[in-house]
Design brief:
The structure holds two protein chains of two kinds. Chain A contains 13 helices and 14 strands. By secondary structure, chain A is of the alpha+beta class. Chain A folds into three domains: 13-61, Uridine Diphospho-n-acetylenolpyruvylglucosamine Reductase, domain 2 (2-Layer Sandwich), CATH 3.30.43.10; 71-179, Uridine Diphospho-n-acetylenolpyruvylglucosamine Reductase, domain 3 (2-Layer Sandwich); 186-323, CO dehydrogenase flavoprotein, C-terminal domain (Enolase-like, domain 1). Chain A has a five-stranded antiparallel beta sheet, with no helix packed on it. A four-stranded antiparallel beta sheet of chain A has the order 11-12-13-14. Chain A has a three-stranded parallel beta sheet with strand order 1-3-2, with helices on one face. The longest helix of chain A has 24 residues, at 298-321. The termini of chain A are far apart. Chain B folds into two domains: 3-77, Beta-grasp domain (Ubiquitin-like (UB roll)), CATH 3.10.20; 88-151, Orthogonal Bundle (DNA polymerase, domain 1). Chain B has a five-stranded mixed beta sheet with strand order 2-1-5-3-4, with helices on one face. The longest helix of chain B is centred in the C-terminal third of the chain and has 14 residues, at 105-118. The termini of chain B are far apart. The chains are: A alpha+beta, B alpha+beta. Chains A and B meet through helix 3 and helix 7 of A and strand 4 and helix 4 of B.
């Protein structure tokens, strides 16, 4: 009988470095090259090391670099990469103004994970299933990145290069996530399509952000969640609501989180109707490039893109008036 | 290279020399012989290894021990009164039969403690959310929820 082996024994041994400044962290990454990896909360890095999906010899921790966990809400929303998901979850301001991001952190991992896992880590791990990726995409997030020589900004839409691959060069560190203030009359929502309500990865993730023409949002009860969507849309058509901006992002629908730009272009600047929303949802499903995986088949994911893009567009419009409205109906509890 | 680690464990300052790749769970169980904290999945999913770090729940199985530097760690051994008396949450768990095999119990109790420290009278939804990161494979969740209601005076 072989000896029982703990997970610990299976993991490669590594050095653990705790730089005190960004410059020190950057130079450590440069010095150790491919042997080194940056660790933020570690809820991905440590798990991947235990699963032998990576074997770093040196971990460079960002935890003791000061100032990376701040949230600046004045003007452009500026989030430090070491902000935990739990801190986002607790921010009433973010829930009201950037609802889709709150939806994502509400359903990410567990409280234990959210207390430790960081938004910078979630983006830089670049998993196709990263929960915050879709909200950050529809919120038009830009990433501030620092290397040894210079600093640059990367739009999130150009950041993901493949599963686990990003636009970061060796020695570059994400230092800030910037989100512009949305237009007036904007709502957003993210749906994590999953089999259970906690500790699951999404079968599919869909985020939508919509901004409506200002003059048209007059009727405070124009969305009633108990009415069928077609009835609600009929009332919306009477209101002549015009879509000023629409952004749709899909997760686990392609090798990287993606924007459904063709679908968006069908609705931008147009009057919102039931038929048009149907077309937009279908276009998004066509743009998706899902694959079969253990969590769901490609055809199922594509069908659900259609359903959920429509549903999240409705939820985003509802959120313009009721930003605190939950994305998951209470009855699920 | 070994690290000299200083932190507060269950109210007592402690200094220990550790390997850099050690996880907090192994430090607690194997070096400090506090075996109340359990290893379940070892991958941050089941919550059996939950401890409190500065009052917040973390999965100790994927938390590098070196990151505990300067922190306050509370394990299940640290929440009773130290004179043999149990914590009210522990008593409520016993009274309501919220323990079957007991393996999830230390983590579950600490998650409940963190919840009640933040929300003294949680709704049922808040209770279920609060323990969502702790899997009970005996599936005795109903009694656990009842115990939490009782201990929070509901």
């Amino acid at each position: 009988m072989p000896e029982p082996v703990s997970m610990e024994a299976l993991m490669n041994k590594f050095e653990y470095l705790k730089p005190k400044t960004l410059d020190e962290a950057i130079s450590l990454l440069k010095r150790h090259g491919e042997k080194a990896i940056l660790i933020a909360g570690g809820t991905d890095v440590i798990v991947m090391a235990k699963q032998k999906r990576m074997a770093p010899e040196v971990l460079v921790s960002l935890r003791e670099v000061p100032g990376l966990d701040s949230i600046h809400t004045h003007g452009t929303l500026r989030l430090g990469p070491m902000v935990t998901h739990r801190a986002i979850e607790k921010s009433e301001f973010i829930r009201k103004e950037f609802s889709a991001l709150s939806d994502a952190v509400d359903s990410l991992g567990s409280i234990q994970i959210r207390n430790v896992a960081t938004i910078g880590g979630n983006i830089c791990t670049a998993a196709p299933s990263a929960d915050t990726a879709c909200p950050f995409l529809v919120l038009d997030a830009h990433l501030k990145v620092k290397g040894s020589q210079s600093e640059r900004m990367i739009p999130l839409s150009q950041f993901f290069r493949g599963p686990g691959r990003t636009a970061l060069s060796r020695g570059e560190i994400l230092t800030e996530i910037q989100i512009p203030r949305p237009l007036p009359n904007t709502g957003s929502a993210y749906w994590k399509h999953q089999r259970r309500l906690a500790l699951d990865l999404p079968i599919l993730g869909v985020a939508v952000l919509i901004s409506l023409d200002k003059a048209t949002v007059t009727c405070s009860d124009f969305l009633c969640t108990t009415s069928p969507i077609s009835a609600v849309l009929h009332r919306l058509e009477e209101d002549e609501l015009v879509c000023r901006e629409i952004r749709i992002a899909l997760g686990v629908a392609a090798p990287t989180p993606m924007r459904a730009v063709k679908a968006e272009s069908l609705l931008r600047g147009k009057k919102i109707t039931d038929e048009l929303l149907e077309e937009v949802s279908e276009a998004a499903a066509k743009e998706a490039q899902p694959r079969d995986s253990i969590r769901g088949e490609a055809w199922y994911r594509r069908d659900m893109v259609k359903v959920l893009v429509k549903r999240m567009t409705m939820k985003s419009m509802e959120r313009i008036l009721r930003p605190e409205e939950k994305v998951f109906p209470d009855r699920l509890w | 290279m070994k690290h000299i680690l200083n932190f507060t464990l269950n109210g007592e300052p402690i200094q220990v020399e550790i390997e850099p790749h050690l996880m907090l769970l192994q430090l607690l169980r194997e070096k400090l012989e506090l075996t109340g904290t359990k290893e379940g999945c070892g991958m941050g999913e089941c919550g059996a290894c939950t401890v409190l770090l500065d009052g917040k729940t973390v999965n100790s199985c994927i938390f590098p021990a070196v990151e505990a530097e300067g922190k306050r760690i509370t394990t299940i051994e640290g929440i009773a009164d130290g004179k043999g008396g149990l914590h009210p949450i522990q008593k409520a768990f016993i009274e309501h039969g919220a323990i079957q095999c007991g393996f999830c119990t230390p983590g579950m109790v600490l998650s409940v403690k963190a919840l009640l420290d933040e929300i003294p009278k949680p709704t049922e939804e808040e209770i279920r959310n609060g323990i969502a990161g702790n899997l009970c494979r005996c599936t005795g969740y109903l009694q656990i929820v009842q115990a939490v209601k009782a201990v929070s005076g509901q």
